[in-house]
């Protein structure tokens, strides 16, 4: 073969050189690795013997008719040794003498790209799932918040009604009833009778003033 094949030895992209009988007359180490055989063993075999493709490669049986580089064709393959993957194929004639007609086939491995795409697509779908879960949780939280507001309003209404009832009950008593805190300050909650019994409502007044305690008893009462 009158062609400097050493040009392809260092290529990371697998390449095969075929003769007009479709037999491999050269392949670099990357191509041999993809085929699962040694470079020497790959020689004199056809590409169809080294690989089984998922669909026909039309130009493979029409090598003499190829005058320029063919478009890349993406296709799945299984090697004779059981290796599987996905590649992009292209073929073009080599500039050699007419009697030594040769064609070079480049096989760009896209298996890793496909795996990465599946990986990133899976991660994206997982993130989209998390986002959907968060959206659903937000909707449930909004529903709970609305229900909580309704519950609070209902409870407030119940307490308001209870306070009215308690006020009515207290006001029906003849005794003066009031409440004060530990600081001695009377609350607004008291019966109407306080106005007569205590001569005034105790609301917001110190209890010792309401009870009209003499000054010398205030300190003791506070204790």
Can you summarize this structure?
The chain has 223 residues and is α+β, with helices and mostly antiparallel strands. The protein is 43% helix and 20% strand.
Please count the beta strands (DSSP E, at least 2 residues each). Answer: 8
Structural category is alpha+beta
As laid out across the biggest beta sheet, the strand order is: 2-1-6-5-4-3
The sequence of SSEs as H and E is HEEHHHEEEEHEEHHH
Radius of gyration: 47 Å
Map the helices and strands:
Layout: H1 6-9, E1 15-19, E2 24-27, H2 29-35, H3 39-42, H4 47-50, E3 51-53, E4 73-79, E5 84-93, E6 102-109, H5 111-171, E7 178-180, E8 186-190, H6 194-197, H7 207-210, H8 215-222
Antiparallel strand pairs: 1-2, 1-6, 3-4, 4-5, 5-6, 7-8
Describe the structure.
It is a single chain. The protein is α+β, with helices and mostly antiparallel strands and 223 residues long. Helix content is 43%, strand content 20%. The chain has eight helices and eight strands. The protein has helices at residues 6-9, 29-35, 39-42, 47-50, 111-171, 194-197, 207-210, 215-222, and strands at 15-19, 24-27, 51-53, 73-79, 84-93, 102-109, 178-180, 186-190. The chain has a six-stranded antiparallel beta sheet with strand order 2-1-6-5-4-3. A two-stranded antiparallel sheet has the order 7-8. A hairpin with an 8-residue loop joins strand 5 (84-93) and strand 6. The longest helix has 61 residues, at 111-171. The model has no long low-confidence stretch (mean pLDDT 83).
């Amino acid at each position: 073969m009158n062609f400097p094949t050493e040009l392809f030895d260092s290529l990371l992209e697998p390449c095969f050189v075929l003769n007009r009988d479709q037999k491999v007359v050269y392949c670099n180490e990357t191509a041999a690795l993809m085929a699962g055989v040694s470079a020497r063993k790959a020689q004199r075999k056809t590409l169809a013997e080294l690989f089984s493709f998922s669909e026909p490669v039309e130009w493979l049986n029409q090598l003499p008719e190829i005058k320029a580089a063919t478009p890349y064709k993406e296709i799945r393959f299984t090697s004779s040794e059981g290796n599987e993957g996905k590649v992009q194929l292209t073929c073009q004639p080599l500039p050699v003498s007419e009697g030594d007609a040769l064609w070079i086939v480049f096989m760009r491995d896209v298996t890793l790209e496909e795996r990465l795409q599946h990986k990133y697509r899976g991660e994206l779908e997982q993130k989209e799932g998390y986002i959907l879960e968060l959206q659903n949780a937000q909707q449930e939280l909004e529903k709970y918040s609305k229900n909580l507001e309704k519950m609070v309003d209902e409870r407030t209404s119940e307490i308001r009604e209870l306070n009215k009832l308690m006020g009515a009950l207290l006001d029906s008593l003849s005794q003066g009833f009031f409440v004060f805190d530990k600081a001695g300050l009377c609350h607004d909650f008291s019966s109407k009778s306080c106005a007569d019994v205590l001569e005034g409502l105790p609301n917001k007044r110190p209890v010792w003033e309401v009870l009209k305690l003499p000054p010398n008893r205030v300190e003791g009462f506070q204790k």
